[in-house]
């Protein structure tokens, strides 16, 4: 278990996905949908998601994080997975700008999808 009392809900692309009180976690990255931040919980490195509203800005963060001496391959993959889950695959579809990205709309879609999946799992039991 993580410090936030997050609950493991499954794995995506080999990374653990947790559902917590305020959001989701990918490996050591915690996505807080209320604060609209993503934080590397081990390094206490917080990124304000309201400042990311275009595909190039997502890519800038990936390149920026890659330069950090503490970032591991799995950490970077978990961050990329979180960005894809949040903004969707089409946010950077085939190199064409799809922005500005609507963070609030994307958070709502992500939460709705999670609850649909959880409801389906409950029905299957």
Walk me through the topology.
Layout: E1 7-12, E2 15-19, E3 23-26, E4 29-32, E5 37-40, E6 45-48, H1 55-66, H2 73-87, H3 103-124
Antiparallel strand pairs: 1-2, 2-3, 3-4, 4-5, 5-6
Helix pairs in contact: 1-2
Describe the protein:
This protein has helices at 55-66, 73-87, 103-124, and strands at residues 7-12, 15-19, 23-26, 29-32, 37-40, 45-48. The protein has 125 residues and is an alpha+beta fold. The chain has one domain. Strands 1-2-3-4-5-6 form a six-stranded antiparallel beta sheet. Strand 4 (29-32) and strand 5 (37-40) form a beta hairpin. Helix 1 runs antiparallel to helix 2. It is globular, with a radius of gyration of 14 Å. The relative contact order is 0.14. The model has no long low-confidence stretch (mean pLDDT 79).
Short description:
It contains 3 helices and 6 strands; from the N terminus they run ββββββααα. By secondary structure, it is an alpha+beta fold.
